[in-house]
Amino acid sequence: MNAGVLLRELWQSWRASLRRPGFVLLAGGTLALGVGASVAGFALLYSVMLKPLPYPDPSLLVQIGPSYAAGVSGDMSPVWYQHLGKPPGLASVGAAHGGRYVNVAGSGQPVMVAAQSVDRGFLATLGVTMALGRNFTRSEDSPHAPPAVILSHGFWLRQFGGSAAVIGRTLMVDGQPHAVVGVLPTSFRWPAQVDLLLPLQLAPHSTDPGTNLTIIGRLAPNTTLGTVSAQIQTRMQNYARASGDPRALRAHFVATALAANLDYGYRSLLWMVLACAGCVLLIAGGNVSNLMLLRAAAQGHPSSVRAALGAPGLRLVLPALAETLLVAMTGVALGLLVAAAGIHWLNSELMHQDWFGTVRHIGLNARLLAFALIAALLVAGLAALLRIWRVRASAAPQELMSGGRGGLSVSAGRLSRVLVIAQAALAASLVLIAALFAHSLLNLTRVDLGFDPTHVLTFAVAPPRRDYPNDAALSRLSSELLHRLREIPGVQRVALTSNPPIQSAMNLPILLPSGQEISAQYRFVSPDLFATLGIPLLRGRGISVDDRRGTAPVAVVSAAFQRRHLSGNALGQILTINLSEIGVPIEHLTVTGIAGDVRQFGPQQPAPAIVYVPIEQVPTALMAKLRQFVPLYFMLRVHGNPRSYESTMRAAVHEIAPGLALATMRPLGARVAAALAPTRLLMLLAAIVAALALGLASVGLYSVMAVATAARRREFGVRAAMGATPQGLMMAVLRTGLLQVCGGLVLGLGIAWAVSGVLRAYLFGLHVLDPLAVLTTCAMLLLAGSLACIGPALRAARTPPTVSLNESAG
Questions:
Q1: Distance from C-alpha of 503 to C-alpha of 603, rounded to nearest angstrom
Q2: Nearest alpha carbon to residue 426 among 810, 741, 644
Q3: How far apart, in whole angstroms, are the C-alpha atoms of residue 716 and residue 739?
Q4: pLDDT given for residue 810 in this prediction
Q5: Are 94 and 215 in contact (CB under 8 A)?
Q6: Kindly report the CA angle at 384 between 785 and 714, in degrees rounded to 5?
Q7: Distances (CA, A) of 385 to 33, 282, 293, 328
Q8: Burial of 424 by CB count in 10 Å (0-12 exposed, 13-18 middle, 19+ buried)?
C-alpha cells in the first residue's frame, strides 16, 4: 500500500469518526479521567520529590548529622558542629538554627514574624544569589558583632514595597537595631518558611550540647557520599573518644542527600497518592479496551466481508488505528483540563498548608505534558492492539460463526469479562482505602485529647529583650497582660504557657530519682492553665500563685510521665534538670501533682510525658535560653465565638505594651482541626479517586452487559417463548453482571491486604480489613454493579417471544 492510499484511508476514517463523534468522545472522555488523575498525582510527586532543588548543582548538596533513618541525617549540636570543621570531601559547610518568632519595627506597624539564625556558610553552600545586597560577612557572624539582617523576598515586598533603597536601612528586631544587608531571591526555599535571616553568631568554643542545628554541605568535585561520610565519622569519633561524649560515641555520623532529608516525612504518602491515581488510569484503560472491543464487534461484519474480498491486513486495521489516534488526542486534551482542575485543587487545599517544605506551588510543565501524552498513547495503543486482534483478517470466519453480526465472539467476550473483573478489583481496593481513611478520621475525632479546645482563643507574643531584659520585667509584663485580659467582658479564664497543648514541642533532659536520664516535654505555665484548658488534676495540687521565685521549686507531671518513669507514689519525688553545660544551674523539682494526659502531637500519637513548672520559678539562665526558641502563648476561655474577641484582645495587649506584636491568633479548635487536616485531606483525596474508579468501573460493566444482552436477544426471545418470566430473564442478566462484580470485589480485598503494610501507617485503631469498611465497600460495589446492570436487565426482561421467530425468519 503506497503512502497516498494510506493517507486517504486515514482521512476517510477520521471523517467517518468525526461525523459521528460519540464513540471518540466517550472513549476519549473515559481516558481523560484516568490521564487527568495520573497527571495530577505525578505533578504532586514530581514537584515535591523529583524536581531538583532550586539551587546550583543540587545533587551535590548534603545534610550532615547522626544517621536517623535510611538515607536521612539528624540535627547536630553546636559543639559537634565546631569539631566537625570542613572535611576535605566538602567544598563548604553551613548551619541553620531552628526558627523562632521575633518582633519587628521600623517598617510600619510592629509585627511578629518568623526568623531563622544561619551562619555565613549556609547561603554560600546552597549557592544562593541575592536579589539585593549580600550575604553575612565573617565579622557579622561573630559574637557581639553589630546586628545585621537579611529579608525574605516576600517580607521585602510586603513591608518595603520592593524598594531597592532598603539596603542599609535599620530594622528594629526584638528592640535592637539591625542593618538590612540583603534580600533573598524569590527562588529561595527552605522547609521552615521564614521572613528574616539573622546571623547565627556561634561562640568559638561553644559547649551547647543541644541538637538544634541543621548542618548542610556541598560535595567537592569527584567526591562521593560514602567518602565524605567516612571522613565525617572518623572526625566525630576522634572527638567523641577524646571528650568522652557518650551521645557522640553512640552516634553514626553520615552525609546524606539534602533532597532526601527534605521529603523524608511524606515520601510513602506521595507514592501512595500516585499509585491510587495510577489505578484510576488502569481502570480507564480497561474501559477504553472494552469500548474498543465493542467497537470492533459492531464493525465485525463489514471487516469480515472486506477480509473475504481480499483486503490486505494493513488496510483492515487502518480504521482502528486512525480512531485510536483520535481517542488518544481527545484523551490528552480533555485529560489536561482534568489535570489542571486537580492541580488547582491541590494548590488551594494542600500546598497552602506549607506541609511540603521547599514546595509552595504545583504547575503544569513540559514534563507533565509529555507524561500525559505518553500515558494516553500507551493506554490507547494497548486498547488498539486488542481491537486489531479482534478485526484481524484471520479471525473473520470465527467472527461469523461464534459472534454473529452484533456481538462479541466467545474469546473476546471472555476478555471483556476479565477486564470488567479487573476494573471492579481496582475500584474495590480504592473504595476500601477511602472507607478506611473515613473510618480512621472518625476515630480520630472521637479521641479525647486531654483538654477542651472549645471557646478558647490563643495568641503568642515574643517580648523583646531590649524592652524586657530580665525576669522581673518579663514577670511584670505577664502579670499585667493576664490581669488586663481577665477584665475583658466575656473572658472566663486566662493563662499563659510556653507551648500550646497541640502541635508543639519542647524537650529537656530530666534526671529521674532512679538516676536514669530521660528526655521529656517541658512546659512553663501560669497557675490557671489547667482550669483554662480543662486539663484534669488527678492527684495532688496544681500550680499555685504561691509558687514564686525563692520558694521550693515544684512540678506537676502528666499521668504518662508517672506511668513510664516514676514508681510508687509520685508525689514528693525529686526530678533534676541538669543543664550546667550551657550555664544553667542544676535545679531540683518536687512533684506536687499529677495532671491528665494531653495528646500534644495530635490524636494519632500517644500522650507524651510532660513536666509542668511555674513560670515564676524558671531559673533566670534557663528562661534566657528558652526565650530564644519559644514565645509566650496566651490561652483565653471565652463566652461565644472566640473569633469575635480578636480585635478586643489586640487592643488590650497594646494598652499594656504598645510596641508588642501579636502572632498566630486563632481559636484553639482551629489548631486541633489543623492537626487533623492531613488525614481529612487524605480521606477526601481517596474519596475523589474512589468515586472516579467506581464510576469508570460501572460504565465498563454497563457497556459489556449492554452488548452481551443485545447479542443474546434471540436467546431471550426463545426463553420467553418457552415460558421464562420477565423476572427470570432480568435476574439472569443481573446474576451474570454481579458475579463479575463479586469476583472483582474478592480480588480488590486481596489487593488491599497486599498493600496493608503501607496503609497501616495512615490508619488509627483499624485493621486493613476493618469490618465496617469492608461492608461499606461491598455495599457500594454491589450497588454500583446493580445500577450498571439494571438497564440491560430490563431490556432482557422486555424481550418479546416473537423476536426469535422474526430473527430466525430474517
A1: 10
A2: 741
A3: 19
A4: 46
A5: yes
A6: 50
A7: 21, 16, 10, 14
A8: buried
Which three cell numbers, joined as nine digits, stand for 708? 452481551
| 3-state secondary structure (DSSP) of residue 570 | coil
| Type of residue found at 503 | Q
Q: Which of 609, 569, 607 is nearest to 591 (CA)?
A: 569
The residue among 700, 688, 689, 687 whose CA lies nearest residue 785 is 700
Residue-wise DSSP of 498-548: SS-SSS---EEEEE-TTS-EEEEEEEEE-TTHHHHHT--EEEE----TT--
Name beta bridge partners: 575.
589
Burial class of residue 271 (count of CB atoms within 10 Å of its CB; 0-12, 13-18, 19+)? middle
Query: What pLDDT does 809 receive?
Result: 46
> H helices then E strands: how many in the chain?
25, 23
- The pTM (predicted TM-score) of the whole model is 0.78
Residue partners of 369: CB distance under 8 A and separation at least 6: 336
Q: Calculate ∠ Cα 742-743-746, nearest 5°.
A: 85
Name every residue whose Cβ is closer than 8 Å to that of residue 161 and which is 6 or more positions away in sequence: none
Residue 402 C-alpha cell reads as: 461464534
pLDDT at position 456 is: 96
Q: How far apart are CA 610 and CA 559, in angstroms?
A: 8
Please choose, from the candidates 593, 589, 573, the residue with its C-alpha nearest in 3D space to the C-alpha of residue 513.
573
The separation between the first and the last C-alpha atoms of the chain, rounded to the nearest angstrom, is: 38
Q: Which of 698, 696, 699 is nearest to 34 (CA)?
A: 696
How far apart CA 398 and CA 760 sit, in angstroms, is: 50
686-698 burial: b if 16+ Cβ within 10 Å, else e: bbbbbbbbbbbbb
Residues listed for the chain: 810
Helix (H), strand (E) at residue 388:
helix 366-391
Count other C-beta atoms under 10 Å from residue 324's C-beta. Answer: 25
Report the 10 Å Cβ neighbour count for 810: 6
**Residue 257 bridge partners (DSSP):** 62
What is the DSSP secondary-structure string of 448-459? Answer: --SS--TTEEEE
Rounded Cα distance between 300 and 580, Å, is: 88
Cα 47 to Cα 51: distance, rounded to the nearest angstrom: 5
Distance CA 731, CA 737 (A): 10
Question: Is the separation of the CB atoms in 722 and 400 below 8 Å?
Answer: no
* Segments of the chain with pLDDT less than 70: 1-14, 16-18, 106-108, 264-265, 296-317, 352-358, 390-413, 711, 803-810
Among the listed residues 413, 424, 379, the one whose alpha carbon sits nearest the alpha carbon of residue 296: 413
Give the CA radius of gyration of the chain.
Answer: 34
The sign one gets for the Cα dihedral 485, 490, 493, 496 is: negative
